[in-house]
Amino acid sequence: MVGRVPRTHSDPRRADMRTTIALAFLLIAPAFLHAQDAGPTEPSPAAEPAVRIRRAPATSPKPAARAGKRQLDPVAPGDDGTFRPTVIIRRGTSQGSGTVVASVDDDTLVLTAAHVVRSEGPILVELHRYNLGLERRTNAPGRWPRRVPAQLVGADASADVAVLRVRQMVALPYVAKLSEDDQDALPDDSILTSVGIDLGAKLSSWKTELVETASFQLNESDVDRPFLITDKIPEHGRSGGGLFTGKGRLVGVCVGHAEMIQGRRMGVFASIDSIHRILREHDLNAVVDRSSARHEKLRRPRPDLPRQARRPSSPSLTPTEASDPAPARP
């Protein structure tokens, strides 16, 4: 294992964080499926900026759908706020991961990376049985997975964060809870959990150490945004997936990986500060608040009624026949 990197900018090997960073996408595209065995191709050092973040391409929709039926359903107990809100996002020939952060009837919000939905075509959110807690039911109605159309509400290219909205759908039962603290509240060397759908087929998580928080300009952006830098680098298809604290609070969105120190790549996640900013700028906090109140109410235990109150020994039956007499038989 590579030794821990101190959370400081004084390391002479570290690239100047004020330099614009070219991010390596973690999407999945069909061309990537044919080239992934050979490994990523790096441009010549002279042609790239001081720090380059790679966003891997996204997986082909067809293989992802076939693998999804076999691999995406198993979810362990205790994953209600991390795994279950994780979905697949599709647009055009690319796909990535996403996280449901609010859901009430007729209004569901999904966070993802902006580059996941930057291509043309309709946006689809792919739901699996585990998103609804139906993975253990062999007779779950309908065909799975199910794809529902979504609208792009807003995107911040500088932070590489986007919010999608799904209408005309009942509230989903599982929603990720956003951290109420800013990124500076994360302790040094925090152990965080990344959740996503690698290669568009494998729902998985792994723990990683937070190396540091840093602000820099991403790709062609001329605006600094805050990011979380992790020791472990994400796999293709994880872009848009959530980064969670040990208490299950969402603190980041996967956007790629970069050579933050010469000769060593690290994971890059948009921070909770950017998430709160985009929700605030598009007036979505009210939806998040309504969703939080709804799910808090659902989690609240019902009062333990006395046995007599639960079921009378001799229940009085109220007939439910129709008010009009049934027509006589001929």
Q: What's this, in brief?
A:
The chain has helices at 30-35, 61-71, 272-281, 285-299, 307-310; strands at 22-27, 52-57, 86-91, 94-104, 107-112, 123-127, 146-156, 161-166, 177-178, 191-198, 202-217, 224-230, 242-244, 249-261, 264-271. With 330 residues, it is an alpha+beta fold. The chain is globular, with a radius of gyration of 23 Å.
Write the layout of secondary structure elements.
Blueprint: E1 22-27, H1 30-35, E2 52-57, H2 61-71, E3 86-91, E4 94-104, E5 107-112, E6 123-127, E7 146-156, E8 161-166, E9 177-178, E10 191-198, E11 202-217, E12 224-230, E13 242-244, E14 249-261, E15 264-271, H3 272-281, H4 285-299, H5 307-310
Parallel strand pairs: 1-2, 9-14
Antiparallel strand pairs: 2-14, 3-4, 3-6, 4-5, 5-8, 6-7, 7-8, 10-11, 10-13, 11-12, 12-15, 13-14, 14-15
Q: Can you walk through the features of this model?
A:
It holds the Pfam family Trypsin_2. This is Serine protease. Residues 37-82, 289-330 are annotated as: Disordered. This protein is an alpha+beta fold. Helix content is 14%, strand content 35%. Mean pLDDT is 77; it is low at 1-19, 30-52, 56-71 and 320-327. β11 (202-217) and β12 form a beta hairpin.
